TrEMBL record:
Record domain GS beta-grasp: where: 3-81
GO biological process per UniProt: glutamine biosynthetic process
SUPFAM superfamilies: Glutamine synthetase, N-terminal domain (SSF54368), Glutamine synthetase/guanido kinase (SSF55931)
Family of this protein: Belongs to the glutamine synthetase family.
InterPro entries, A to Z: Gln_syn_GlnII, Gln_synt_N, Gln_synt_N_sf, Gln_synth/guanido_kin_cat_dom, Gln_synth_cat_dom, Gln_synth_gly_rich_site, Gln_synth_N_conserv_site, Glutamine_Synthetase
Organism name: Actinacidiphila oryziradicis
Protein name (record): Glutamine synthetase
Lineage: superkingdom: Bacteria
């Protein structure tokens, strides 16, 4: 029996890239190989030289189609074999390799918001729901909107073998979170992109859309982030390493260098209100949800563990945020001899 391979890739849409996918029928026993697409329709090429190349990098059982069907995460290349400029995974590969001995792990908390038409799910026509307060981790039809979609997405992620570690309802109605990890930089990023694809695809069947927009509702409503939890082997054993990592992200130009690549509209979300730190001031602290980087309280108690970079937007590219954190923190951990 032939089987279906859904090739998934990241396009060149500005300012925030989108996911694309298309189906290839493969003969029984054949592996998914290199494929092509029309880059002029995805902002990845000009019409007169439109071919771009898809190279499979990871595949997962397809929970939507079931059977032997698969999802295939791809990198995008030019026809001369060089990575396309939108291919941020190609930039992560050498950094992950360079610091592989430090055994970095990431857990990313993906917040997102469901929309029905032009309003967040749960926002009444022509008005607003009750103010924030009861929705986070809430229960009941007055507080929870879209749980059927969320449960289906969770099951789909598990069936696909995604390393999903939990879900919760968020602070604004229609806003939710799932967490992927802890996993290596490449695995967490590949799997987060596939989990995002599954989110859109699952919600599609319910007539609902999902957005990673960082500020989906203007006014006194929380934005949507992608808190990025990070550890190395030494941080999982030693508190000095935790401090070196937290300090490394605040040195010199590093805060601005990172923030620039932490997602579209990051300055609009990191206002200093709504459990955020201002985007232009770096701080870290134990248990502090108003700091740029939080050291969880149990990490302080146990004197080992991980740190949480709270700055990345929901729409951040995980290939980029993991690359920047590994590069910055692992360089300083190496200099400090904490490897
Ligand atoms: P929060 O209290 O900030 O809402 P969550 O429970 O939503 O925390 O997310 C915590 C994330 O941290 C999870 O994705 C989890 O897998 C990840 N995590 C746990 N331990 C580590 C570790 N040692 N290194 C990296 N990530 C970790
Ligand atoms: Mn969380
Ligand atoms: Mn959250
Ligand atoms: Mn968090």
């Amino acid at each position: 029996m032939p089987y279906k391979a859904e090739y998934i890739w990241i396009d060149g849409t500005e300012p925030t890239a989108k996911l694309r996918s298309k189906t290839k029928i493969l003969a029984d026993g054949d592996e998914p190989g290199t494929w092509g697409f029309d880059g002029s329709s995805t902002n990845q090429a000009e019409g007169h030289a439109s071919d771009r190349v898809l190279k499979p990098v990871a595949s997962y059982p397809d929970p939507i189609r079931g059977g032997d069907h698969i999802l295939v995460m791809c990198e995008v290349f030019n026809i001369d074999g060089t990575p396309h400029e939108s291919n941020t995974r190609a930039l992560l590969r050498p950094i992950a390799e360079k610091f592989a001995a430090q055994e970095s792990l990431f857990g990313i908390e993906q917040e997102y918001t469901f929309f029905k038409g032009s309003r967040p799910l749960g926002f009444p026509e022509g008005g607003f729901p009750a103010p924030q307060g009861g929705y986070y981790c809430g229960v009941g039809a007055d507080e929870i909107f879209g749980r059927d979609v969320v449960e289906k997405h969770l099951d789909n992620c598990l069936a696909a073998g995604i390393g999903i570690s939990g879900i919760n309802a968020e602070v604004m109605p229609g806003q939710w979170e799932f967490q992927v990890g802890p996993l290596s930089p490449l695995d967490v990023s590949d799997q987060l992109w596939v989990a995002r694809w599954l989110l859109y695809r699952t919600a599609e069947d319910f007539g609902v859309s999902a957005t990673l927009d960082a500020k989906p509702a203007k006014g006194d409503w929380n934005g949507a982030g992608a808190h990025t939890n990070f550890s190395t082997k030494s941080m999982r054993e030693d508190y000095d390493a935790i401090i070196v990592a937290a300090e490394s992200l605040g040195k010199g130009n590093k805060p601005l260098e990172h923030i620039k690549h932490y997602g579209t509209g990051v300055e609009d979300r990191l206002t200093g209100a709504h459990e955020t730190a201002p985007w232009n001031e770096y701080s870290y602290g134990v248990s502090n949800r108003g700091a740029s980087v939080r050291i969880p309280w149990q990490v302080e108690v146990e004197k080992k563990g991980y740190i949480e970079d709270r700055r990345p937007n929901a729409n951040v590219d995980p290939y980029v945020v993991t690359r920047l954190i590994v590069d910055t923190a692992c360089t300083d951990l190496e200099s400090a001899g904490l490897v």
